[in-house]
Amino acid sequence: MAHFQYQILVGKDQANVPGSMVWFLNGSQQLGPELPQILNQLGKQGWEVAGIGDLGFGGCAEIVLKRSVN
Q1: Are 58 and 14 in contact (CB under 8 A)?
Q2: In total, how many domains does the chain have?
Q3: Which residues pair with 49 in a beta bridge?
Q4: Can you say how many angstroms the Cα of residue 28 is from the centroid of all Cα atoms in its chain?
């Protein structure tokens, strides 16, 4: 049976920078504003996007990541 790990990327607006978003891993570890670069780095570690949405209904963008665990 397959086992998976999950993490969540949370996008938060940067203060005083209209249209700019900073991404955080699990809501606390700041990764930066460059989403494609962040996804490519996490993809090298085996993470893939499993879903996108506003999971907490708080107006933040969230990306659910998963990877297979052996």
Answers
A1: no
A2: 1
A3: 65
A4: 11
